[in-house]
Amino acid sequence: MKASNxxxxxxxxxxxxxxxxxxxxAAFAAQLDPTMEELGDLRTAVxxxxxxxxxxxxxxxxxxxxxxxxILESGVFEVTVRDWGRGIEDLEKAMTPLYSTGGEExxxxxxxxxxxxxxxxxxxxxxxxxxxxxxxxSFSPRAVRV
Length: 146
Ligand SMILES: Nc1ncnc2c1ncn2[C@@H]1O[C@H](COP(=O)(O)OP(=O)(O)O)[C@@H](O)[C@H]1O
Ligand SMILES: [Mg+2]
Prior knowledge:
Number of domains: 1
CATH architecture: 2-Layer Sandwich
Distance between the termini: 30 Å
Oligomer: single chain
Low-confidence stretches: none
CATH class: Alpha Beta
Bound molecules: adenosine-5'-diphosphate, magnesium ion
C-alpha cells in the first residue's frame, strides 16, 4: 500500500541508539493521535526489534540499522527495522516464545512481544545477509474512544 507520509533513519548498532529509535518512532506516530497506551505498546515493540538488531545481528561489531516509518493511506502505522548482519538460520524456532541464543540476560520473548503489541508482524531473514522486521499497528480513532 502507498504511504501518505514516511521517514527513514539509518544509525550504527550502538546500544545508545536504541532509545533514540524508540523515541523517533513514537514522535513520528504522534501525528496519528495515538493513546498513551498505544504509544507505549509501539515503543516497546520498536525497542525489541532494534535491540535484536543491535545484540544479535552484529554480535561482535558495529553495523548499520535502517528504520523506516510509514503512515499508510489507510492510516496504519508501519515500522520496518532492517539490518545486514548475521541473519537467522531457523526463523520458526527463533520466533518461538522463550527461545534465545543470547544467554542468561535475554528472555527469548522479543518476537512474542512484537507480535502481541502490534497488529501484524512479518520477519524475513537470510543467514549471513541480514534480517528485516515489519510491524503494522493501527490506532483507535478518537471519536469512538470512551
Ligand atoms: N536481527 C536479528 N539478527 C540475528 N538474529 C536475530 C535477530 N533478531 C532475533 N534473532 C534471533 O532470534 C532469537 C529470538 O529473539 P527474541 O525473541 O527477541 O529473543 P532474545 O532477543 O531475548 O533472544 C535471538 O536469540 C536470536 O538468535
Ligand atoms: Mg530480543
